[in-house]
Structure formats: structure tokens, C-alpha cells
Write a structure and sequence with these properties.
The complex is a heterodimer of chains A (360) and B (212). Chain A is α+β, with helices and mostly antiparallel strands and 360 residues long. Chain A is built from 8 helices and 14 strands. Chain A has helices spanning 2-10, 38-42, 178-185, 222-227, 248-260, 287-296, 322-327, 346-358; strands at residues 60-61, 64-68, 72-74, 87-93, 100-101, 115-121, 125-133, 139-146, 153-155, 161-163, 173-175, 231-232, 298-299, 310-311. In chain A, the strands form 5 sheets. Chain A has a 6-stranded antiparallel beta sheet, covered by helices on one side. In chain A, strands 1-2 form a two-stranded antiparallel sheet. In chain A, strands 5-12 form a two-stranded parallel sheet. Chain A is globular. In chain B, the strands form 2 sheets. A 3-stranded antiparallel beta sheet of chain B has the order 3-4-5, with no helix packed on it. Chain B has a two-stranded antiparallel sheet with strand order 1-2. In chain B, a hairpin with a 5-residue loop joins strand 3 and strand 4 (125-128). Mean pLDDT of chain B is 80; it is low at 1-48. Classes of the chains: A alpha+beta (360), B alpha+beta (212). Chains A and B meet through helix 1 and helix 3 of A and helix 5 of B.
Chain lengths: 360, 212
């Protein structure tokens, strides 16, 4: 949704600390739709077609709209992505008789036809996103926008949409553009599925994780996936992996950075050269030490106001650390994450600040 | 009060480009006027190199990229302007290397509405409601340019309007929505051409957020 992004940066009175900082401005010509032209949209026209309604997408029963189909498996990652406080529900639907290849514990391979769904609610249901694995190994991304009555959800435009009304408390809500889906999900060379992996589904859930939701009884963890033969090749004695951090604050902080930042800040994607690897692992015992070292490394890319040098994390001084300063901003130039959020995650900032202040 | 520009980004970008000659370094509009019919005030040097032979066979790859770069105003911001004998002109010895790191900009001037933006005479630093932006080094220098970029990163940057397709917004006056009309093939050709340029080591400053 580049036009919306640019609209925000053109706003003369900058809404940097306000909710909805990335709201569309007059540049959207008063339309709730993104103003991308037909020619711009045409660049995605050759993609394989996606179901045009959520009813056709395979999450709910074909004969009973609103009732989950039997194959829909509920899961809750222990280190969830901050989405401006939206309530989220997640499901994976595997093809019949298919299973996930977990022989590489950090890099699961999903069978062709797998579909992941995530439902976002604010005051009411707003959108349900879907990722599907296609026969050629690529992934398709869709967002289905619910109507006010929550009776149907329709495929959003590839350029994204803006929803604003009672179900969003009157605040503009940005449904991502297809390119923005890829921006976050395709920041690694491995599978673009985020939030559904060994560490996220560990039976040893982190009690200090930010925004940790207690999983409902029907939610699966690693043990369940193995027992139900939905996950093959994964070492059965490793159902309780945890981050190898020295204390609970460090564990939760590393989990937060993994769940919220590592899809871009890793060692294999386009941003690998900046040397900020927040990935965590269920097999690499040095993952936390590596994350800590990366956070403490000097950086010259971002400068604190009025200073010529910046550090990502200054031990004992979170207030002057670039990581927390950028997490605490929603100025488009400065904010982290750079997309998918227009409100500061105060709980996340507090957690990361506690961690940086505890570092020696 | 919340003011926003009641116009489209492409239109604004066009306005910005039209304004370049008047905003350029030490440019006196009277002196900048063409001295003879047909003279270009702001020559984009590579335009003159487009050969008539190109019309007979479709251009591809870097050759296509060269033509697109030459005709799509890339030089107008990414090549620093200098004052030549006929007025401002792109300094082709620093072609497409972005805002010169030696040119440290003072704080942006305070503007009176409806003025909303200002530019350096080089056309490489721009101030507006978004803060201060500096045009990027598009040469293949590995440390300060696009030397470590892959074609897909370049395409994703234009497609998303975000740095490397996933970071901060690409800032005004870069006319991203205009360039989104390029196909992936055309964007890829532009990247191929940029990778053939002489690498120029020039570390462009990071953008500056607006004052709080």
C-alpha cells in the first residue's frame, strides 16, 4: 500500500505518537480503497487466482458457514507478533493424509495445499488472512475483509484496503497489500510461515512472554502435532525446546525479538548484511548469545537525535538504545517494525527495556 | 489542525521535477534560460545517447535499463547537480551516486504555508513534512550503493515503496507510484543497467525525522 505509506509521510502535522499514525490522508481522495492505478495492480494479475471469498477458502465447512471444518487445527504461538492489540485466532489446514516435514527442526516444510489462516478482530471481526502453499512451491497471500454483520468476508484488493467503522472503534485499519504480506513473510530463504514452528509451539511455554495468550484446550503444541501424525521427522524427544537465555527476562526478550523482528532481522534474508540476527533456534545452543552480541554491536545506520553515533543496545541504558527508541516511535522514518503497526507496543518496549537495562 | 496535501503523489512528484530548475544550485532563472532554441536547460546526458538503431530492435536487459533510466528522470535527483556554463546540470562524474556525503546540510529552513518543501541546489537533499530525505547512491559500490543488492530487492523496493521491500518508506520526492507502472522486467532491466555503472563510494546520510 505504498500510496498510504507516502500519504503518512506527507502529512504536515505529523501524527507520530498518535494511534493510526499510518492512516491514509487526503491523498486517498476520500476513498477507503487504495488509489493504486490499474496499471500498478496489473503487475500482480498473472498470479494464480485466489478464492474470492473466505467461504471458498477451506477454513469453514462448505455445508455450514461459520463452522470450522474438521481439518482446521488451532494453534497459538508463544511469542506472538504485535498487531496493535488486535485479537487474533489462527488455524492451519493440511491437505488430507499429508503431514509437515520436521526433519530440519528449525525449517519445517509444508505439503502443497497447506493453508494457514489468521483472523483479526478489533471491536469486531475485521479480516482473515490466508497463506497457501502452491504446487510450484510458491506461496499465495490473501486477506478477506469481513462485512459489518460478520456474515461474509471478501478478498481484498491486491493493493490493500482501509477499514474504518464501529468494528475498528472508528480508527482506520490497514488491510495489507499483497506486496506487504511478502515483505514480512518472505524475509528468509526458508518457509514464509511465521509463528508456526518448533520454538513457537513448544510445550515449555514462556510465562514471561509479552502478550502471551493462554492457548485454548483445542490448540496444538509440538507433542500434539507428533501424536496426531501431522508432523513427521521431528525428534520426538524435543517437544519442549526453550531459548537458552541466562534468566527469565532475557528469555522473554529474545522470544519477543524472535517473534516480532527476526522475520526481517535474520542471517539469510535481504537485510542479512546489517548483521542484526534475532533468529532463535531449537538446535543451535548459541542462538541467544548471537542475538545478544548483535544487539550490543555498534551501528552506524541509525543516529539518535543530536548524536553522531548510536548503539543498538547500550547495556544499562535502554532510553538511549536505538532498539527501544525505534520500537517507541511511530514516525514512518524511525519506527520499528516499519509496517503492520501504528501503535507502540508498550508492553514490548517495557520488556526489551528491562532486558537492555539488565545487560552488563 | 491537520493539513494534508490534497493532491496525488504522482502529481506532486511531477511538480517537484518541474520545479527542479528553479531550485537548483545558485540558479538564476534568467541565466538558466536556453541560449538557443533547442538547448536543454537540464540535460540528462544519457538521453542524447539513445540511438536510432534502438528503434529497430526491442531493447532488453541493461540496454533497456539504460534507456529507462535516461528517460525516467533518475538523474534529476540521484545525480548531484552542479552549476555549469548554461546553468544547473548533472555532474556526470558522480552519476547516480546520490547526495554527496561531503555536503553536510544545515537544518532545513522553516517554511510558510502553503510552502511545504525545500531542496538543496544539488537536488539531492529534500526537506518537507516527512523530515529530510537524501537521494540514494544507485551505483554498485558494495558498501554505500547497491553493490550487495539483488534484482529482487530492487523490484520489491519499488513494488512496496519500502527500503529493500520491507523497511522504512521510500521518501518523497521519489515518485514511487509512477515507477510502479514499470513491469518487473523493466525494473529488472533498470537494476541490470545500474549494476554496470562505475561504482562510486559515497555514503548517503540516513533520513532525518521531522522535529518533535
Amino acid at each position: 500500500m505504498p500510496a498510504v505509506v507516502l500519504g503518512a509521510v506527507w502529512s504536515v502535522e505529523h501524527p507520530r505518537w498518535e494511534a493510526g499514525a499510518l492512516a491514509p490522508t487526503d491523498l486517498a481522495h476520500g476513498s477507503p480503497q487504495s488509489p493504486l492505478s490499474g496499471a500498478q495492480l496489473a503487475n500482480t494479475a498473472q498470479l494464480p487466482s485466489l478464492p474470492t471469498t473466505l467461504a471458498q477458502a477451506g477454513l469453514y465447512r462448505a455445508d455450514a458457514w461459520g463452522q470450522l471444518q474438521e481439518a482446521a487445527v488451532v494453534y497459538v504461538p508463544q511469542y506472538p507478533l504485535w498487531s496493535d492489540g488486535a485479537d487474533k485466532k489462527r488455524w492451519v489446514v493440511l491437505p488430507p493424509h499429508a503431514s509437515i516435514d520436521g526433519s530440519q527442526p528449525d525449517r519445517w516444510e509444508f505439503p502443497v495445499g497447506t493453508r494457514f489462516f489468521k483472523e483479526f478482530s478489533v471491536a469486531g471481526k475485521v479480516e482473515t488472512r490466508m497463506i497457501e502453499k502452491r504446487a510450484d512451491g510458491s506461496y499465495g497471500y490473501a486477506a478477506y475483509v469481513w462485512d459489518e454483520a460478520e456474515t461474509e468476508a471478501v478478498l481484498a484488493a491486491p493493493a490493500g484496503e482501509v477499514v474504518q467503522g464501529k468494528r475498528t472503534y472508528g480508527e482506520p485499519y490497514l488491510v495489507p497489500a499483497e506486496a506487504e504480506c511478502r515483505a514480512c513473510h518472505e524475509g528468509r530463504t526458508a518457509s514464509p510461515i511465521l509463528g508456526f514452528g518448533a520454538l513457537q509451539l513448544s510445550t515449555d511455554r514462556d510465562p514471561g512472554a509479552a502478550h502471551a495468550d493462554a492457548p485454548p484446550d483445542e490448540a496444538v503444541d509440538l507433542r500434539d502435532l507428533i501424536e496426531r501424525e501431522l508432523l513427521e521427522g521431528y525428534p520426538a524427544d524435543s517437544v519442549a525446546p526453550r531459548i537458552g537465555a541466562p534468566n527469565p527476562t532475557a528469555r522473554a526478550a529474545a522470544g519477543y525479538l524472535f517473534g516480532n523482528c527476526a522475520h526481517c532481522h535474520n542471517a539469510e534474508g535481504p537485510l542479512a548484511d546489517i548483521g542484526l540476527n534475532f533468529d532463535q533456534s531449537v538446535v543451535d545452543a548459541q542462538a541467544y548469545a548471537r542475538l545478544r552480541a548483535a544487539a550490543l554491536a555498534p551501528t552506524e545506520l541509525f543516529q539518535l537525535p543530536g548524536e553522531t553515533h548510536a548503539r543498538r543496545a547500550i547495556p544499562g541504558d535502554a532510553a538511549r538504545s536505538a532498539i527501544t527508541l525505534r520500537m517507541n516511535s511511530r514516525s514512518p522514518i524511525t519506527q520499528m517494525p516499519p509496517l503492520g503497526t501504528s501503535r507502540v507496543d508498550t508492553e514490548g518496549v517495557r520488556l526489551i527495556s528491562d532486558w537492555i537495562n539488565s545487560l552488563q | 489542525m491537520k493539513l494534508s496535501l490534497n493532491s496525488s503523489i504522482p502529481a506532486l512528484s511531477s511538480l517537484a521535477l518541474v520545479a527542479l530548475a528553479l531550485l537548483s544550485a545558485g540558479c538564476d532563472p534568467a541565466n538558466a534560460a536556453p541560449k538557443a532554441k533547442g538547448d536543454a536547460v537540464v540535460p540528462s546526458a544519457p538521453v542524447a545517447q539513445a540511438s536510432s538503431a534502438a528503434a529497430t530492435a526491442p531493447l532488453t536487459g541493461a540496454a533497456l535499463g539504460k534507456k529507462l533510466v535516461s528517460t525516467s528522470a533518475c538523474h534529476d535527483c540521484h545525480t548531484p547537480f552542479k552549476l555549469g556554463p548554461r546553468g544547473p546540470e548533472p555532474d556526470m562524474s558522480r552519476a547516480l551516486s546520490g547526495h554527496p556525503e561531503q555536503l553536510v546540510m544545515p537544518p532545513a529552513p522553516k517554511l510558510q504555508a502553503p510552502w511545504v518543501m525545500a531542496a538543496a541546489g544539488t537536488n539531492t537533499a529534500w526537506a518537507g513534512p516527512w523530515g529530510v530525505s537524501f537521494t540514494a547512491n544507485l551505483t554498485p559500490d558494495p558498501e554505500t550503493g547497491l553493490g550487495k543488492w539483488k534484482k529482487e530487492h530492487f523490484i520489491q523496493t519499488i513494488r512496496t515503496g519500502r527500503h529493500m521491500g520491507r523497511g522504512r518508506p521510500v521518501l518523497p520526492p521519489m515518485p514511487v507510484p509512477v515507477y510502479q507502472n514499470f513491469s518487473d522486467e523493466e525494473l529488472g532491466a533498470i537494476f541490470e543497467y545500474l549494476q554496470t555503472l562505475p561504482a562510486i563510494k559515497n555514503r548517503v546520510p540516513e533520513p532525518v525525522a521531522p522535529p518533535t
